[in-house]
Amino acid sequence: MVETEDAIDPKHGIPVFSLYGKARRPTSEMCEMLDVLLIDLQDLGARIYTFLTTVLYALEAGARHAKEVWILDRPNPIGRPIEGTRLLPGNESFVGASTLPMRHGLTLGEAARWFVTRHGLDVKLQVVSMLGYNPHVAPGFGWCFGQIPWINPSPNAASLNMGRCYPGTVLFEGTTLSEGRGTTAPLEVIGAPDIDRDQILATMRNLRPDWLKGAYVRPCSFEPTFHKHTGMLCNGIQIHTDWRGYDHFVFRPYRLGNLFLKALRVVHPHYPIWRNHPYEYTGGRLPIDVIDGGPMLREWVDDPSSTFDEREAVLARDEAEWVDEINSVLLYP
What we know:
Elements lengths: L6 E2 L6 E2 L11 H5 L3 E4 L10 H16 L2 E5 L10 E4 L14 E3 L4 H11 L6 E4 L31 H10 L19 E4 L4 H11 L8 E7 L11 E7 L12 H15 L19 H6 L3 H7 L5 H19 L7
């Protein structure tokens, strides 16, 4: 959590207010200085990415202070596929704005339209939509290859491959395993010094091979230069979506992350998987529960009697509900 302080713009001499520092919601002081709150952010397409939460907070501030909110819409880099359980009511946080699934399939403009309806916000919202945007078309499937450059929306969002992996690899921020921070491939690799990588991979292929499809998952070793396991050789996997065999509509990163965690628990029954520290301004809950929007994943991983069919049934139910719920807010075919 590298915060940004308020400042004065050196060129224009106007105040710059941070929404990732002392305040994370627009305050009355901020809103008094504006007529329209204009949002121009490049989102990553996952519920946990905090730009999504900031949009909800901005809409709530607009409703509270009778200010218009305009969104200059941008692509969802990871496109339309929907995946993951929905956040359970009561588990909202800065990394879980509302009851969305992990991979929500919306642009920020579409998500804002859903927020207004879902939360009953009395705010004048204007979404400036993109011309000719089609999230179903190869090779980008949501990202506009050859039209706009990839500029990291945050320090560890270094590539489109990272974005595609993120809805699954972000789960490992709530574990003792490294998610690749401190390497040149953050959120694209998973591992730890003291796990049997080969046995875990074999177990994954045996337990639920269909949850591995769509991307190239290879065994690898890496050494973080900071964060978890600094200077230690970690054994794990790397996920590749940047190869000719990538299947955008088959690859399911959230399920892949679930599968790795379950295989780890099978291979190492007593491994201390879960971290316990305040996560993104949220204390009193395990980080994995904050990230996943409830305890269901952790409980499923730790229960020796739980099955993949049970987990798939819950996922399929939540995903189908979400598909039906968002039809009215979609702006792009």
